[in-house]
Amino acid sequence: MNSATVRSLLVRGMLAGLGAGVLALIAAYFLGEPSVDSAISFEEAHSHEHEMEVVSRSLQSTAGLATGVLVYGVAFGGIAALAFCFALGRVGRFGPRATALLLSGCALLAVYVVPFLKYPANPPSVGDPDTIGKRTGLYFLMMVLSVLLAIAATILGKRLAPSLGTWYATVVAVAGFVLVIGLAYAFLPVVNEVPKHFPATLLWRFRLSALAIQTVLWGGFGLVFGELAERLLNPKPATSTSGRAVPAAH
Amino acid sequence: MAQTVAQPTATTPVVPAKLPLKAIAPWAVFFGVLMMLLLYFVGAEQGATSVFNGTDVHEWVHDARHLLGFPCH
């Protein structure tokens, strides 16, 4: 029964991730692609060698974009569903819907926003091809560090809650997270490879659109997956008064 | 008066039952690795490291890689 529940939640997570990926794809196509095109125009105007086109621009901006965003959505949907299985009933007095939205809000912060603030998304023509190894390593390091610290902060908050109360335990846990992330920001190397004369407004628009895509993805995932999980785990309508009859299981 | 305290009402959410770790673990290990592999192909293949030769994977997911925040080239 329990293993089957995990499987059902995993499948729903991947489906919700696919759905959220579709929403994120719409955001990426309409908000992000104009900036990508402008950045590529800048790149072509400022470089002398012309690279051979392996995949045409029209494919990259449609089918290629869709492949990447949807696979990303499904993959993170699956991982988030597994994290949800673990978090459900363990993080506090939250039902499935609230747990799902809380989890995806934290995931947006830990998986994307925290690494983004140190190593933001870059449009084409920003970034030196020779440093791709170093930049990839730093980006994934920041992502892993942020996720592990978020998990550690959650555990710390849970441990402190009985003595400090939920409010202060949460404040202390979040402050600890911010402090360690601040140290990582201060000590990890700076990456600044924006070419001279690259338009600042274009860079800003590109990065805002990258942030919007992730917000749509994780927001959509939290709402859709929360709904699916709620229906799976609490099949009765939400308005039923069964709440008081069943004491919390221990 | 006394009734206004302590009794959980219909709107008080019941804490959901925990799923046992033993039930989650096998799924988490297998699908965790599988999902990370998918993320690797979207985010990093034929950039910093390559499993396959060439640049086809990189070029195909090029726009997604930029817009999803991965370092691209």
From TrEMBL, chain B:
Species in which this protein is naturally found: Streptomyces glomeratus
Pfam families with a match to the protein in the record: CbtB
Full protein name: CbtB-domain containing protein
Alphabetical list of InterPro entries matching this protein: CbtB_put (IPR012667)
Residue ranges of the TM segments: 24-42
Domain of life: Bacteria
Keywords: Membrane, Transmembrane, Transmembrane helix
